[in-house]
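Ops channel
N.P.: pipeline sanity check, posting one input/output pair.
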């Protein structure tokens, strides 16, 4: 009997945890109002634009770093050749 009540309490605890926490509000404007379809679409377009810009900045930064690394590498090779000769 005690085991049965213990099992019942243990199985209800995770369910009670889920109930006590508020559900996340997706597509809300921060004021508690749920966005309409058009507003969601506009927000998605804006988010995608920002992500594209961020990825472009990262790509350009990586290209600059790669070019700088190759420049340093190419500058070291002639120095090594002059020291050996």
């Amino acid at each position: 009997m005690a085991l049965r009540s213990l099992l019942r309490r243990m199985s209800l605890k995770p369910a009670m945890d889920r109930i006590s926490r508020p559900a996340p509000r997706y597509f809300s404007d921060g004021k508690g109002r749920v966005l309409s379809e058009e507003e969601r679409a506009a927000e998605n377009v804006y988010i995608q634009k920002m992500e594209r810009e961020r990825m472009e900045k990262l790509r350009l930064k990586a290209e600059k770093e790669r070019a700088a690394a190759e420049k340093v590498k190419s500058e070291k090779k002639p120095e090594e050749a002059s020291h050996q000769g």
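N.P.: looks fine end to end. Residues 24 and 82 are 65 Å apart (CA to CA).
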